[in-house]
Write a structure and sequence with these properties.
This protein is of the alpha+beta class and about 650 residues long. It contains 13 helices and 37 strands. Helix content is about 25%, strand content about 20%.
Length: about 650
């Protein structure tokens, strides 16, 4: 095996937990993970940056810089000078917000060819020749750039449900006797139809109203299959499904509100069809344009295989949380998504020269938000179902890895990495409950704003700025409402540090009445938060962290937190040239150490703002560069000696006479 890699493949598995991967490997599952563990080095004391959430941590993995340096300091961003509360923050899903060079940009400057696949914050691309797929959201077809809360737009639209029952972002209809159909065979003697006003939920661009149809061929009032069609003709039929069946990937043309046309792909599943048609549920997958700005440069879409798998908004998480889909369908939606990602990535690697491949995949994280708390439920049946989903999603990602590794040869360094782990949901901590009794914060009416999701824990109160010295914001910050800096500031600049200390004291001494425990494990003034890699004008005036039994699954717990079956420690695994085999690296390391290690092995300059350390302990020969330099020095000496003899022959020794 080569001493140094010629290529590097980094595969990011959001929220993957190494100790649970090892558990399944020991049970005989996850053969691809097993192969990589046996052929590589696992960092058993890897630490995620703080806060332990998606955008900042993937920015770390891309730049090798700390949060304070690359500027993505939380899931959301606060613009200095804007209102302090959470009502003015927007999601950090934008390359232009990252204030550090990425490893693929540095590699391209060094003459390397790069492919970046569905990586948070990678769009808009700054590479001149490199290929970027997605990067505006969790997956292709989603855009979160600059949006508030956990909002997302979709191009063309997200998943929907057509049903005889009522579901969010769906269409509720009823079946009547079918009439006017032409060119459809085997309709039976009692066919029924449903007229469907297509919902096209959360479309990023306006779509013209469209009517589709569901036809139920039937004999004597019994129905066993459903036909989805864009009109009442055989040439309009998209698919025919039996209960539990997925369609092949479907391609059709959608008319936009401006009269333009958009060719889209998607898959459907007939989830439910009662024999008498009294119950019906059809999942329509997210629709994504077959060509469009999901790839950069645009011409790289030519020859890319998008025919396998499909896209589903957030992997079906919201549908799962709302009960719109069952667990089996949820797992299958993630299989569709991971398959699509893998096959597109393989096409790009086969059709283009590449030296560095970076990819992000999110199904494991979504799965934890759906089932992790149930994994520790007192209800045995609920617990068993949750663990089953847990294992099946890891198996989905194992199969995706197997496909991707078909493009990795013996000279390829493969890195598996996650941004953080997760712990079960605990008691909710509301920072106002600590700040208000201390006279530091007040709300306008004592009521909380309505929250759209429980996936991300944010303080959702409307603060009374005229009276509040302190304002909680985002996952982990408290701001001093400072005169001269903040629009409604009331704290005099000379009292800034005094109020910081008061905030820390209030947080650290607060006892939760429900549990009798202190929720806050750490509270630091801004100047001291540099020890966590947090600094600059994109962090709050006080940084705090919770004990793992409080709050939601990740974000505001320190990266060493553990609770139930979960740990916050991330996955970091190296396999390939010059990497120790079947090795567990004990040294503590941070995720910002990944980039300089890759650059060292690939022999390219590190990104300009890179701050991490090289993980020599993962290498079989960490001194290979020193040895190569020594060989070059010796060779140079020989050349110099030869040149110093001018044109004399080797046997000419007259100068020694």
């Amino acid at each position: 095996m080569a001493k140094t890699p010629k290529k590097v493949m980094v595969i990011g598995l959001d929220c993957a937990q190494p100790h649970l991967i090892e558990k399944y490997v020991k049970e005989g599952a996850l053969p691809t993970f097993k192969k990589l563990l046996e052929s590589g080095t696992l960092a058993v004391n890897a630490l995620a940056p703080y806060p332990t959430v998606t955008p900042p941590n993937w920015a770390v993995i891309a730049t090798g810089a700390t949060d304070g340096t690359h500027g993505i300091t939380d899931f959301h961003n606060h613009t200095p000078g804007a209102t302090l509360g959470n009502e003015s923050i927007t999601q950090n899903w934008d390359r232009d917000r990252i204030q550090a060079e990425t490893v693929w940009e540095a590699a391209e400057k060094a003459g390397k060819k790069c492919i970046v696949m569905t990586y948070p914050g990678s769009a808009p691309s700054r590479m001149k020749k490199g290929i970027t797929v997605g990067g505006n959201g969790f997956h292709v077809g989603e855009s979160r750039k600059g949006l508030p809360s956990l909002n997302a737009n979709y191009f063309l639209c997200e998943d929907s449900i057509i049903s005889t029952d009522l579901y969010p972002h769906g269409f509720r209809g009823e079946f009547v006797d079918a009439e006017g159909w032409d060119g459809v065979e085997d309709m039976g003697n009692a066919p029924m139809e449903m007229e469907v006003k297509m919902p096209f939920p959360r479309a990023e661009r306006a779509i013209a109203p469209a009517t589709w149809w569901v036809l139920l061929p039937g004999e004597d009032g019994e129905y066993g299959k459903a036909v989805l069609a864009t009109g009442k003709g055989g040439d309009k039929v998209l698919c025919t499904l039996t209960p539990g069946q997925w369609s092949d990937q479907l391609v059709t043309e959608i008319t936009m509100a401006d009269g333009g046309k958009e060719e889209v792909f998607f898959r459907c599943k007939l989830i439910t069809l009662a024999d008498d048609a009294s119950e019906f549920k059809l999942l329509i997958g997210a629709m994504v344009p077959t060509k469009g700005d999901w790839i950069h440069p645009l011409d790289k879409s030519e020859g890319v295989d998008i025919t396998k798998g499909a896209i589903h908004a957030a992997g079906g998480l919201v549908m799962g949380l709302l009960g719109s889909v069952d667990y089996d369908t949820y797992v299958e939606m993630n299989e569709n998504l991971s398959t699509w990602n893998a096959e597109v990535a393989i096409s790009l690697m086969q059709n283009n020269e590449w030296d560095l491949f970076y990819m992000h995949s999110h199904p494991i994280d979504w799965m934890y938000h759906l089932v992790l708390t149930d994994m520790v439920s007192d209800d045995a049946e609920k617990r068993e179902k949750a663990w089953d989903v847990h294992k099946r999603i890891y198996e989905v990602e194992d199969r995706m890895l197997a496909r991707l590794l078909t493009q990795a040869d013996k000279d390829t360094l493969v890195v598996l990495v996650s941004d953080h782990g997760a712990t079960p949901d605990g008691v909710v901590f509301d920072p106002y409950k600590a700040l208000t009794p201390a006279g530091l914060a007040y709300m306008t009416d004592g009521k909380a704003m309505e929250s759209e999701s429980n996936v991300l824990a944010l303080s959702t109160h409307l603060p009374d700025y005229a009276r509040s010295k302190a304002v909680p914001q985002r996952e982990i910050y408290i701001y001093v409402n400072l005169k001269g800096r903040d629009p409604e500031g009331i704290v005099e600049p000379e009292d800034y540090e005094k109020v910081q200390r008061e905030i820390c004291d209030a947080l650290l001494t607060y006892v939760d009445p429900q549990t009798g425990k202190r929720p806050v494990a750490l509270a630091l003034p801004k100047k001291d938060a540099r020890i966590l890699g947090l600094h600059g004008d994109r962090i709050g005036d006080v940084v705090y962290a919770l004990y793992p039994e409080f709050g939601s699954q990740h974000g505001h717990m320190l990266p060493t937190a553990e609770a139930g079956p979960g740990k916050l420690g991330p996955l970091l695994l190296f396999s390939g040239p010059n990497i120790k085999k079947n090795n567990k690296m004990e040294r503590a390391c941070w995720l910002w150490d990944l980039v300089p290690t890759i650059c060292y092995l690939l022999c390219i300059p590190a990104p300009e703002q890179c701050e991490g350390a090289i993980l020599y302990q993962a290498m079989r020969d960490p001194h290979f560069k020193d040895k190569e330099m020594e060989k070059l020095r010796e060779g140079l000496k020989r050349m110099e000696a030869a040149m110093s003899r001018d044109s004399r022959e080797p046997w000419d020794h007259h100068d020694c006479a």
